[in-house]
Amino acid sequence: MNSISKLDYCLDRSAGASLLPYGLNTLSDPESKHFEEHLLSCPTCANELAKVSLHLKAISIQRLVLVQHFHITGRTFEQMMQQLVVNASDA
Ligand SMILES: [Zn+2]
């Protein structure tokens, strides 16, 4: 192991900026490959990616629940948001 593995932050700013796009699968192939190579030498980014992936999974599950709710209630997204705003102002 080299000394980089002992750091708790990433020294490569461009790699840090690639974390979320990589998690969302929106990087180009060369960008993905470059970030994956960085992950091999950067435990900080590897750990962050693991956390980001958990959040993204939770968001996609919530999105599925919302979509099911739309189908059951027959409401549009705008109607749901309107109701959320009304509920929030009542609270
Ligand atoms: Zn890194």
Would you kindly provide a written description of the structure presented here, covering whatever features stand out?
- The chain is an all-alpha fold.
- The protein has one domain (3-90).
- The protein is 76% helix and 0% strand.
- The chain has helices spanning 13-23, 29-41, 43-73, 77-90.
- α1 packs across α2, α1 packs parallel to α3 and α2 packs across α3 (43-73).
- The longest helix is centred in the middle third of the chain and has 31 residues, at 43-73.
- The relative contact order is 0.09.
- Mean pLDDT is 84; it is low at 1-5.
Classify the helix fraction into a percent range.
over 70%
- Quaternary status of these chains? single chain
Compute the number of structural domains: 1
The hetero molecules present are: zinc ion
The poorly predicted ranges are: 1-5
**Overall morphology:** elongated
Distance between the termini: 54 Å
Structural class computed from helices and strand pairing: mainly alpha
How many distinct beta strands?
Answer: 0
The helix/strand series, from N terminus to C terminus, equals HHHH
The DSSP helix count reads 4
Q: Classify the beta-strand content into a percent band.
A: under 5%
If you compute it from the alpha carbons, what radius of gyration comes out, rounded to the nearest whole angstrom? 19 Å
